[in-house]
Amino acid sequence: MESKSITIGISNGWKLSVPEGITFAEIEKSSGMEFKYPPLAARENNELRTLSEEAHDGCNVSFIDGRCEEGRRIYRYSMVFMMLKAFYKLFPNASITVDHSVTGGVWCTPNIGETFRSSHMNQLKEEMIALSEQNIPFNSSKVKVSEAIEIFKKQGNHSDTLRLFECFDNTDEIIELYDCGGYVDYMLTRSVPHTGYLKVFDLLYYPPGFILRFPRPKNPLVLSEFNMERQIFKKYSEFKQLGKAIQVSDVADLNASVVAKETQDIVRVSEAIQEKKLAEIADMIYRQKDNIKVILIAGPSSSGKTTFAGRLGIQLRINGMKPVAISVDDYFVDREHTPRDENGEYDFEVLEALDLNLFNEHLEKLLAGEEIELPRFDFAQGKRFPSGKKLKLQPNQPVVIEGLHGLNDRLTESVARENKFKIYISPLTSLNLDNHNRIHTTDTRIIRRIVRDKLYRGRDALGTLKKWDSVRRGERLYIFPFQEEADVMFNSFLVYEISVLRNFVEEPLKNISNEHPEYSEAQRLLKLLQFFRPIGTEDIPQNSIIREFIGKA
Q1: Is 545 in contact with 492 (CB distance < 8 Å)?
Q2: Cα separation of 94 and 453, whole Å?
Q3: Are residues 377 and 384 in contact, defined by beta-carbon separation less than 8 angstroms?
Q4: What is the end-to-end Cα distance of the chain in Å, rounded?
Q5: Do domains 5-64 and 70-213 have the same CATH topology?
Q6: What is the three-class DSSP state of 376?
Q7: 93-120 confidence digits (pLDDT tens)
Q8: Which stretches does DSSP call E strand in 138-256?
Q9: Which CATH number fits domain 5-64: 3.50.50.60, 3.30.70.20, 3.40.50.300, 3.10.20.30?
């Protein structure tokens, strides 16, 4: 009997007639398409699929490799999964936490009952290499949360994951578990088909744990360069300690507080910690008030820079200083002089989109005690005009500049370094779902931005997701290379915030249909949000950073 055929569309415009039951991996090999880098997963009608799944009749298929965000995420989660399988084989009664990202990798902290030494790490690396050579498949199964609870009870080394699932809103909800050679765990994304896909990695000993290194974003066949961001690392570690003080180390702890109706204290303590940090930064500036003339605030999108700048200003005024803010946006060059990107579009994020000469001339005059007239940029007309507003600095009146390029000395090259105080702000998210599944800072930021764009900019979630890649590109080019030059870093993440934001972001994400490529990203974020029990807004202070995104009460 002849096998039945189905028709599928390929992203390059081809239509293929293929046998029913064909997997995406088989389509990749038989399509005749040439791939510079091996595909890691597929999109079927914009829904993310593993390569080992079967295609459906009439579907449209595109392939994902390690150069896109989705592909990198699949590789990294799969690599962590393989590392966990190797770890528990070597140390069956131990535990390990996948803590937070560093440039080119992720930091992991094992607890094996003794000091974790480089010899232990080398054992782990050898076991991982052996697993990658065995092509062990990642098998997925969809089960009820109640079934997952029983599976983790039997496996015995997942008490944190067990607590997470036990706090689930609905234990009849269907989730996806993965099994790799008998090791079962939960993963926040899809996996590669088997361990043979996971060849590019390394382990770097970094007591009391190690760093699992990943491939380069632009060339997934080559190991990424490692750069230890010591200030970022310190802030993540600091937040972990604060989490213990609040008694919220992971999402299970947070959900337990919601069930017990104890979130009011968590909100108050979290906000108080941020206010204390703000006061400490203001005190640092005050102690150097004779030298500091310019305060620069920079950070990636949706970090809470505007609220932070306002609250810092209040703390400085308490110390007797009178900061004055200058908007960098008013120093854009006229539209016809704006640089264009590789696609011929206006590039408003490049430094040359600003009139650096005028900006520095004004700074020089202000710091010399002279009066200036501030410009006003009309975005509708794409032109800069005189504003009529005059400014002259008084004693104890530093200039506050908030913007994308704040940490880049080229923006303020007329000001000596000793006269500048640089602040980097970001919601550094070190709250984990469980010991093995991190919540990425990028996810916190995109959730914040979706909420803010809908409330203040009339943009739906689809529009926000469409722009996100270009936003991230600007950050990689103009913010992250300079973050370690900051004099101080401020973590704007609040341990309770995703539980609050869930109320605002869930419905907009559900409205994104599979007609759009952004559908798979929306589904991934919804998958993350389902683990958070919602928290109301009634206890959130009006000056909270979260109010910048959800609005005032």
Answers
A1: yes
A2: 44
A3: yes
A4: 68
A5: no
A6: strand
A7: 999 999 888 878 999 999 999 999 999 9
A8: 138-144, 174-180, 183-186, 202-206, 209-213
A9: 3.10.20.30
Helices then strands, counting H and E runs in the chain, come out as 15, 21
Separation CA 176–CA 431 (nearest Å): 22
Place of tokens 């507003």: 389
For the ranges 171-185, 205-219, 231-245, 461-475, the lowest mean pLDDT is seen at: 231-245
Distance CA 178, CA 161 (A): 14
Angle (CA) 218-220-226 rounded to 5° is 80
CA 471 to mean position of chain CA atoms = 12
User: Six-digit token pair at 302?
Assistant: 């949706």
How far apart CA 412 and CA 529 sit, in angstroms, is 41
SS (H, E, C) 52-121: CCECCCCCEEEEECCCCHHHHHHHHHHHHHHHHHHHHHHCCCCEEEEEEEEECEEEEEEECCCCCCHHHH
State the Cα–Cα distance between residues 302 and 539, nearest whole angstrom. Answer: 22
Q: What is the pTM of this model?
A: 0.91
Per DSSP bridges, beta strands 372-378 and 420-426 are: unpaired
Residue 3: pLDDT above 90? no
- Identify the bridge partners of residue 400 per DSSP, sorted by sequence position: 295, 325
Structure tokens at 550: 């959800």
Please enumerate in sequence order all residues whose Cβ is within 8 A of that of 11, keeping only pairs 6 or more positions apart, or say none. 60, 61, 62, 63
Q: H or E segment at 262? A: none
3-state SS of 284-310? HHHHCCCCCCEEEEECCCCCCHHHHHH
d(CA 411, CA 404): 10
User: Taking Cα atoms as reference points, which of 79, 75, 108, 73 lies closest to residue 94?
Assistant: 108
Residue 231 has pLDDT above 80, yes or no: no
Q: Is 340 helix (H, G, I), strand (E, B) or coil?
A: strand
Average pLDDT, the chain: 91
98 close to 240: Cβ distance less than 8 angstroms? no
Tell me the fold of 70-213: Threonyl-tRNA Synthetase; Chain A, domain 2 (3.30.980)
DSSP state of 511: T
Long-range contacts of the stretch 264-267 (C-beta < 8 A, 24+):
264/539, 266/495, 266/496, 267/494, 267/496, 267/535, 267/539, 267/540
**Residue ranges covered by each domain of the chain:** 5-64, 70-213, 230-323+398-550
